[in-house]
Design brief:
Number of strands: 40
Radius of gyration: 26 Å
Shape: globular
Helix content: 10-25%
Number of helices: 11
Strand order of the largest sheet: 33-34-36-35-37-38-39-40
Largest sheet: 8 strands, mixed
C-alpha cells in the first residue's frame, strides 16, 4: 500500500467519523491467496512405485503422476484440461502396474437426473468414466462409459486385479467396461434394488457388492462364470462394506439393524452394529464381533468405510468409538479385539501397508488441532509416528506397491496443501513447480490456538487470525464451519471447501479484520461426546451457544472493536450465521450466509435427512415443532443486522428454496440484505471464479457494513 493510498484511507475514515483506524499487512490479493493448486485423490499402484493425484489449479483439474525413487523431481502433469468449467475429477485409480489411470469426470446427478453444469453449457454436462495410458506421449483420455451416480462423493471405480476391467455403480446398477476402451460399459447384472460398493475378488473371478432394498440390504456375489448372484447370510438387517480376505475364501462385512417403523424421532438412540464373516463359496455366515448397546458403541462415522480392512494373517482392522474416541482395533476369527491406537485422540484417514502388516493412519495425537501420520502393526504394539511433528500437517497417506515409500498430502499455517514424500528427515514436497511463484506465504499470518468455554461449560477450540500490522482496534469476524462434522485447524485444510475458507480468513486478516474460526460442539476430533452433544441440530441447536461464546471472546480481546463483530460461514456455518443474526443482532452486526439451512422442519417433512415422517413416528407433531424452534426462520422478527445471502441454485445438499424463503421473510420484516445468486452452481462451488466472486463479495460486504457502517437495501 503506497503512502498516498494510506493517506487517502486515513482521510476517508476521518470523514466518516470512524473512531479507530487499522492498517492491514503487506498487500495480498484474494486471487493470490487462492491461487495454489489443491491436491486430492492421492493413490498408488499396487505394484511398483508410481503414485497419482489430481490438482485443481484455479478450477482447472488435471491428473499428475510421480515415480520413485525420485518422487520430487519426477512429478508431472499427464492430462491437459484447460478450462475452469466446473467438471471435477473423482475416483482416480491406477491399474496394478500403474500404466493406466481411470477417473470419473463431471459431477453426480441431482433429483432431476442432471449432472452439474455451472458453466451453463447449452448442451448440458455429463458424468463419465475415462481412462488413459500414463506413459503415452499424448495421454488422450478414452471414454469407458456413463456414470451419473446419485449422491455426493458416490464415485467408486474399482479395477480388476489383472488391470483389464473396471466396474462402478451408477443408476442403481453395476456397470462393467474394459480398461482398453474396446468394450464400452454395460450393465453387469439385473438385480433388484440399488447395487453399490462393488469389490473385486483377489482372483478377479467374482465381484462382491451391496444390494440395497427397502429397509434392509444384502451383501451379494456376482460370479463371471455363473448365471445368478449369491447372497451372503441374508437377513432382515442392513449389510454393507464387503471386504474380501486376501485368499478370496471369505468376506467380512458390517451389519446394522433394519428399519423399524413408528419409532419416535426426538430421542437419540444408539446404532449397534456387528462384523460378520461369510464363506464366499456357500454364502454361509457367522458373527465375528458385536458392539455394545451404548451410544458410544454406535457405528462410527468419522473414518467411514475406509477403516474396515483385511490385513495379513486373516486379521481384520476396524474402527470403534466404544471408549468415546475413534480408535482402531484388529481381530481374528475366534479371538478378542486388540486395541491398536490407545490414547486421548481420534483417528481419521486409514490405510494398510503394501504387505498388509501395518496400519498407516492420520490422527491428532499430541497435537489436537492438527493432523500427523502414524503407523502400528496390525497385531498390536506401540504406534510409531511416521513423520516428525511440529507445525506441519499431513493426511491421506498411501504406500507404494513396492513398500518402499509413503506419500501423503500436507500443509502448514502459511503454505497450502501439496503432495509430499515422507522421508527420514520429515517430508519433501512433490510438484513444487505447480505452486505459483507469487503465492504470498510470507504475507500470511500464523493463527493462534485459542481455548475458551461456552456458557454451559463446554470447552471450545478455535484459531485466531490477527492482522500482522494492525494499529488500534479492528473489526472482528466469527467463522463457523459447515458439516457440522468438521474441524478447522491451525493450517490450510485437507478439504477443498475449507482450504478455500481458510484462504478467505487469511485474506480477511490481511484486510484488517480479527477472525476467530470456532470449532463448535458437533465437530470432530474432540471425542464422540463432543461430536454427538445432546440437544443439538434440529433437536434444540445447543451448539449455537458456542457461536455466542466465540463472539463474546472476540469482544474481550484488546485488539478488537467490540461494537463491530460480524460472522460468516457456509452450509451448517450458514445456518449458525443466520442464527446469530436472528437471535443476537445486538452482538453480531453483519453476516454472510453461504447456502445455509434456515428451516429444519423442511428437512423432516420434505427431505428425510434426520427422520422419515412417512414411517409415521408417534412424536411427529412435537418433532416438527422442535425443528422449527431450532431454526433461524423462527426468530426473523428479532433479526435486525444486515446479511449477504450467497447460494447456487443447483444445490444438492441444502435446497435453494431455503434461501428463497428466507429472503421473503427478511423483506417482510424490512431487514437489510443483499444477495449473490449463482445459477447452475452446486453446494460446494465447482468453479474457481465463483469462489473468488463470492469471497470478494464477502470482504466488500463487511467493509461496507462494519468498517464504514453503510446502510444497505432490503434485497429488492
Amino acid at each position: 500500500m503506497t503512502l498516498a493510498t494510506r493517506l487517502f484511507h486515513v482521510a476517508f475514515a476521518l470523514i466518516l467519523g470512524c473512531t479507530t483506524v487499522a492498517w492491514a499487512q503487506s498487500p495480498v490479493t484474494l486471487e493470490q491467496v487462492m491461487s495454489s493448486p489443491f491436491p486430492t485423490e492421492l493413490t498408488a499402484a499396487t505394484h511398483g512405485s508410481r503414485v497419482a493425484w489430481v490438482f485443481d489449479a484455479k478450477g482447472v483439474r488435471n491428473v499428475w503422476v510421480a515415480d520413485g525413487p525420485d518422487f520430487v523431481h519426477s512429478a508431472r502433469q499427464v492430462t491437459h484440461y484447460s478450462a475452469d468449467d466446473g467438471q471435477p475429477i473423482a475416483s482416480l485409480r491406477l491399474t496394478p502396474d500403474g500404466k493406466t489411470a481411470l477417473y470419473a469426470l463431471g459431477s453426480e446427478l441431482n433429483g432431476a437426473q442432471e449432472s452439474a453444469n455451472p458453466a451453463s453449457w447449452t448442451k448440458g454436462a455429463k458424468q463419465q468414466v475415462f481412462a488413459f495410458d500414463v506413459d503415452a506421449k499424448t495421454a488422450t483420455p478414452r471414454l469407458l462409459g456413463e456414470m451419473g451416480c446419485p449422491d455426493e462423493e458416490c464415485e467408486d471405480i474399482q479395477i480388476s486385479p489383472n488391470g483389464k476391467w473396471a466396474v462402478w455403480s451408477a443408476k442403481k446398477k453395476l456397470w462393467l467396461a474394459s480398461v482398453d476402451g474396446k468394450q464400452q460399459a454395460k450393465e453387469l447384472a439385473a438385480v433388484r434394488g440399488a447395487a453399490v460398493e462393488p469389490r473385486w475378488s483377489p482372483d478377479g473371478k467374482h465381484i462382491a457388492f451391496v444390494s440395497q432394498r427397502d429397509g434392509h440390504s444384502f451383501v451379494a456375489i456376482y460370479d463371471f462364470d455363473g448365471d445368478s448372484v449369491r447372497y451372503l447370510a441374508p437377513s432382515v438387517d442392513k449389510d454393507s462394506m464387503p471386504r474380501w480376505s486376501l485368499d478370496g475364501r471369505w468376506i467380512v462385512f458390517v451389519r446394522t439393524a433394519g428399519d423399524e417403523q413408528k419409532l419416535p424421532l426426538i430421542p437419540v438412540r444408539p446404532e449397534p452394529w456387528s462384523l460378520w464373516i461369510a464363506d464366499a463359496a456357500t454364502g454361509a455366515g457367522r458373527l465375528l464381533w458385536r458392539s455394545g448397546g451404548k451410544l458410544d458403541d454406535s457405528l462410527p462415522g468419522l473414518t467411514e468405510d475406509g477403516s474396515l480392512n483385511v490385513a495379513a494373517d486373516g486379521r481384520i482392522v476396524f474402527a470403534s468409538e466404544q471408549d468415546g474416541r475413534n480408535h482402531l482395533y484388529s481381530i481374528v476369527a475366534g479371538g478378542a479385539a486388540t486395541l491398536l491406537t490407545p490414547g486421548d485422540f481420534d483417528v481419521e484417514d486409514v490405510t494398510l501397508s503394501a504387505d498388509h502388516a501395518w496400519v498407516i493412519y492420520s490422527s491428532n495425537q499430541d497435537d489436537v488441532d492438527r493432523r500427523h501420520l502414524w503407523r502400528v502393526p496390525v497385531v498390536g504394539g506401540t504406534p510409531q509416528q511416521a513423520l516428525t511433528g511440529g507445525e506441519t500437517m499431513e493426511w491421506s497417506p498411501v504406500q507404494t506397491g513396492d513398500g518402499k515409500s509413503i506419500l501423503c498430502l500436507g500443509s502448514t499455517a502459511t503454505s497450502p496443501a501439496m503432495p509430499y514424500e515422507v522421508t527420514a528427515k520429515g517430508r519433501a514436497m512433490m510438484a513444487q513447480q505447480a505452486l505459483p511463484s507469487d503465492f504470498p506465504s510470507a504475507s500470511l499470518v500464523t493463527p493462534k490456538q485459542v481455548i475458551f468455554q461456552s456458557d454451559d461449560g463446554v470447552t471450545l477450540h478455535g484459531q485466531l487470525f490477527l492482522p500482522l500490522s494492525a494499529k488500534g482496534k479492528v473489526p472482528g469476524l466469527i467463522f463457523t464451519h459447515g458439516g457440522p462434522i468438521r474441524q478447522m485447524m491451525l493450517g490450510f485444510h485437507y478439504m477443498d471447501y475449507y482450504h478455500n475458507a481458510y484462504a478467505e480468513n487469511q485474506y480477511l486478516a490481511s484486510q484488517g479484520y480479527a477472525v476467530l474460526s470456532v470449532n463448535y460442539r458437533l465437530g470432530i476430533m474432540y471425542g464422540r461426546a463432543f461430536r454427538e452433544a445432546p440437544n443439538t441440530v434440529w433437536r434444540g441447536a445447543a451448539e449455537y451457544k458456542d457461536v455466542v461464546a466465540a463472539g463474546r471472546y472476540l469482544q474481550s480481546l484488546p485488539e478488537v472493536d467490540g461494537d463491530k463483530i460480524g460472522l460468516w460461514g457456509g452450509s451448517y456455518g450458514g445456518f449458525l450465521t443466520a442464527m446469530g443474526l436472528a437471535r443476537n443482532s445486538e452482538l453480531f452486526k453483519a453476516g454472510v450466509d453461504f447456502h445455509g439451512v434456515h428451516d429444519w422442519s423442511v428437512f423432516l417433512t420434505e427431505r428425510p435427512y434426520f427422520g422419515n415422517l412417512a414411517l409415521r413416528p408417534p412424536d411427529e407433531e412435537a418433532a416438527v415443532k422442535l425443528a422449527w424452534d431450532s431454526s433461524p426462520d423462527a426468530y426473523v422478527s428479532t433479526w435486525k443486522s444486515p446479511v449477504l445471502l450467497i447460494h447456487g441454485d443447483d444445490d444438492r445438499n441444502v435446497p435453494f428454496s431455503q434461501t428463497v424463503d428466507l429472503a421473503q421473510r427478511l423483506r417482510a420484516q424490512h431487514v437489510p440484505f443483499e444477495q449473490l445468486i449463482l445459477p447452475d452452481e452446486i453446494h460446494g462451488f465447482l468453479r474457481w471464479r465463483d469462489w473468488v466472486r463470492a469471497y470478494t463479495a464477502t470482504a466488500a460486504f463487511f467493509d461496507r457494513t462494519l468498517k464504514r457502517g453503510e446502510t444497505i437495501g432490503t434485497g429488492n
